[in-house]
């Protein structure tokens, strides 16, 4: 009599990063939720890195330290004294190539033109540059308070689906979660940006210092990320890394000056 055993596919490996830092409640909720369906490794900045964009550290060494203080339980967690993109580079090289990179859950939205300076989105972009399917997740607060339970639960479902279905090369998903969730929409990027202003003041010694401030401006159409979140829907925006304006190539070629 021959015995047979049922083989089970190995669990996928997900690298979780963020820009709010290793101690953010958003990354903790996200990692614990994804751990239900995949093997998770957390690699995050040791301090907040919001707004650093897709910066990579070249001019100094980086520290990569295991930490048990952030409350991830049995999930291996590491802190890096660098940017969100640094975290993905170090995590993928020191812990092994993941099957997916998931960044978040960010404290606050990342919509429209905010993507160009978001550290949360940058971690997903770095995952894409490594050829790994990636998702960036952000959540809007409810009067300054965050409850990540529903958003993290949806994130785990989305991660499971993308692990199974995949994403086209050089694309990722940018997800924004409202405080109270009515449903989910696939959206386009809104014309949502900050009109920058500069506030100049003086310190006690009479020397000028400057604050970059900004007044938000947004497009509220229902098919946009901002409009969906305003209506109470999770916004899922597919983003392509190819920024080439192909429709303008012939026009630009027509007026280029000769060398």
TrEMBL record:
The keyword Hydrolase applies. Its cofactor is a divalent metal cation; Mg(2+). It catalyses: a ribonucleoside 5'-phosphate + H2O = a ribonucleoside + phosphate. It is found in: Cytoplasm. One of its GO terms (molecular function) is nucleotide binding. Its EC number is 3.1.3.5. Keywords: Cytoplasm, Hydrolase, Metal-binding, Nucleotide-binding. Binds 1 divalent metal cation per subunit. Residues 14-195 form the Survival protein SurE-like phosphatase/nucleotidase domain. GO terms for cellular component: cytoplasm. Its main location: cytoplasm. It holds the Pfam family SurE. It is an enzyme of class 3 (hydrolase). A divalent metal cation binds at residues 19-20, 50, 106. It comes from the Bacteria. Coiled coil: none annotated. Nucleotidase that shows phosphatase activity on nucleoside 5'-monophosphates. Belongs to the SurE nucleotidase family. HAMAP family: SurE (MF_00060). This is 5'-nucleotidase SurE. It comes from Deinococcus psychrotolerans. The gene is surE.
């Amino acid at each position: 009599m021959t015995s047979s055993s049922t083989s089970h596919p190995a669990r996928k490996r997900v690298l979780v990063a963020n820009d709010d830092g290793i101690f953010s409640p958003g990354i903790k909720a996200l990692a614990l939720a994804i751990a239900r369906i995949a093997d998770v490794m957390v690699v995050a900045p040791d301090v907040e890195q919001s707004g650093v964009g897709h910066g990579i550290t070249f001019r100094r060494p980086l520290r990569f330290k295991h930490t048990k203080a952030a409350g991830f339980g049995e999930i291996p967690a590491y802190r890096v004294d660098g940017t969100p993109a640094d975290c993905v580079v170090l995590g993928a090289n020191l812990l092994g190539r993941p099957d997916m990179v998931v960044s978040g859950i960010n404290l606050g939205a990342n919509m429209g033109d905010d993507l160009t300076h978001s550290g949360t989105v940058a971690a997903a972009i770095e995952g894409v540059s490594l050829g790994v399917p990636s998702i960036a997740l952000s959540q809007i607060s409810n009067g300054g308070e965050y409850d990540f339970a529903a958003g993290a639960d949806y994130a785990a479902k989305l991660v499971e689906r993308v692990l199974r279905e995949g994403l086209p090369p050089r694309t990722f998903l940018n997800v924004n979660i409202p405080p109270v969730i009515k449903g989910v929409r696939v959206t386009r990027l809104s014309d949502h940006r900050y009109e920058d202003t500069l506030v100049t003041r003086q310190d006690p010694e009479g020397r000028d210092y400057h604050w970059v401030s900004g007044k938000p401006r947004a497009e509220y159409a229902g098919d946009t990320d901002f409009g969906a979140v305003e209506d109470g829907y999770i916004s899922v925006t597919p983003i392509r890394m190819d920024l080439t304006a192909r429709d303008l190539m012939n026009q630009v070629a027509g007026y280029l000056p000769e060398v």
